[in-house]
Amino acid sequence: xxxxxxxxxxxxxxxxxxxxxxxxxxxxxxxxxxxxxxxxxxxxxxxxxxxxxxxxxxxxx
Length: 61
Hints:
Layout: H1 17-31, H2 37-53
Helix pairs in contact: 1-2
């Protein structure tokens, strides 16, 4: 069975950066440190989701 994963982040299911980071860490633990092609695709999707969820810092006044 082939699963297609979107590379876009759905705004309705937005998670915090911490939640996404925990999923990234779990992916690495499950992989044993070497990602398969499918796991790399999932990792890339998660990194994009994490980057979108990271709070933007305000410039110093």
